[in-house]
Amino acid sequence: MTAIVPIQPGTLSLAAMHLRGGGLVAMPTETVYGLACNAANPDAVVRLYEAKGRPRFNPLIAHVANMEMAEQEAVFSDQAREIAAKFWPGPLTLVLPVAKTGTVSDIARAGLDTIALRMPAHPGARALIETFGKPLVAPSANRSGHVSPTTAQHVKEDLDGKVDLILDGGPCERGIESTIVSFVGERPVLLRAGALETPALEAALGASLIAREEADG
Ligand code: AMP
Ligand code: MG
């Protein structure tokens, strides 16, 4: 039986203790509930893939609490930094080259030399990352193929016994996954449409975003 607890200083410390021990903690974000673990611990990441039944070739998004943490993990172009300054914290994931100082394990990135990063807007998610002090990978807290959870109770129904603790931050605002944009090539590429609307991004970029299909073709 996995406990559902409200987010408070005491439960954040307890959650961070589970994370340091290689455990899994469900946390609210402004998109959906995430299943979080220490991004730097390959054993914890394997446990996470297994709890979800998610194939290991599907890379995870690393969640950061501030720009210092982000810049340690990834190489930001001026344009990527501008977009982060405008839309973070928020439901936008940036795919960037991995920095030499990066700490996120290979397995979390599915062996790629790029990394997907996001700074969540939900204060509970940021509080957990700050308390833990390092990036957390956090795909949606559901078994692969099931609906993404927007309440702590949904997480429990899908992952009871497979997650060490569920932090309850109330229902998620959006229930839609983050928008993903790659800044790895010469032009930004929209990898996944999501909670941050494409026109807002295009206005900030001053150009239309090419979709993945166009970039490939
Ligand atoms: P989610 O399914 O919401 O956990 O989001 C994970 C998705 O982010 C993956 O399925 C990929 O589409 C994308 N992603 C994560 N890391 C990378 C990466 N390094 N390069 C490209 N896409 C990535
Ligand atoms: Mg999902």
Can I get a quick summary?
By secondary structure, the protein is of the alpha/beta class. It contains eight helices and eleven strands. It has a single domain, classed as DHBP synthase (Alpha-Beta Complex).
The 3D shape can be described as: globular
SSE class: alpha/beta
Mean pLDDT: 96
CATH homologous superfamily title: DHBP synthase
Give start-end ranges of low-pLDDT stretches: none
Radius of gyration: 16 Å
Supply the number of helical segments: 8
The string of secondary-structure elements, in order, is EHEEHEHHEEHEHEEEHEH
Largest sheet: 11 strands, mixed
Q: Widest sheet: strand order?
A: 1-8-2-3-7-4-6-5-9-10-11
Number of strands: 11
CATH architecture: Alpha-Beta Complex
- CATH-defined topology: DHBP synthase
> Mind telling me the CATH class?
Alpha Beta
Percent strand equals 15-25%
Bound ligands: adenosine monophosphate, magnesium ion
Q: State the helicity in percent bands.
A: 25-40%
Distance between the termini: 49 Å
